[in-house]
Here is the input.
Amino acid sequence: AHVVNADFVKSSVRPDDCPRDGLPEFALVGRSNVGKSSLLNSLVRRKRLALTSKKPGKTQCINHFKVNDSWYLVDLPGYGYASAPQEARTNWDEFTRNYFLSRENLVSVFLLIDASIPAKKIDLDYASWLGQNKVPMTLVFTKCDKRKKKKNGGRRPEENVETFQGLIREYFEAAPPWIMTSSVTNQGRDEILLHMSQLRNY
Ligand code: GTP
Ligand code: MG
Here is the structure.
């Protein structure tokens, strides 16, 4: 499960433009600013392979990164970014949903959920859509290093994680696998890489 090398391959604006070599891939999806690009960097132990930002809306395309010359991590734009123009949001929604349903070499979608705040409706809706469409999914809780704050609902990450799982249970036949992570402490990094290697069968 060790990452030896990782390279940026290409940015695509449509599923049709994505690499066609059929290598297994894992997509990172989640609300804008949830930490998709940061998690990718943590997984491959690089600071700035994928670009990150304090401001939501940083990642704008489907970005393919090849790991160990044999599989892909895919960084996607976030959903739920209220300041993006409506047209851009509709576009995003269309191309990612299209990509999830049609991409044959997509092994599993990694849905990232911010564990430092209570469940958001848009995340529950997204999980529900993936579950109902039977898209293979793994739940990744991010920002588990952040301690509880009154303004964040005053709950610990563990409590938010448990509540979220309870709320999505009805959308899945079996509860999806889940992993708690932090891109600051690298919590969960080895667990994710091991899980990905098991899903690839090597
Ligand atoms: P978009 O590309 O806009 O959809 O965002 P993204 O999901 O790729 O988020 P990104 O990785 O750019 O991170 C957003 C902000 O959250 C940055 O300021 C990160 O430093 C911060 N962040 C990401 N992961 C963590 C984490 O595990 N812990 C903490 N404390 N901050 C994090
Ligand atoms: Mg990003």
Summary: Helices lie at 36-44, 86-102, 121-132, 157-168, 189-200. The CA atoms of residues 109 and 137 lie 5 Å apart. DSSP finds five helices and seven strands in the chain. Strands lie at 6-12, 25-30, 62-67, 71-75, 106-114, 137-142, 178-180.
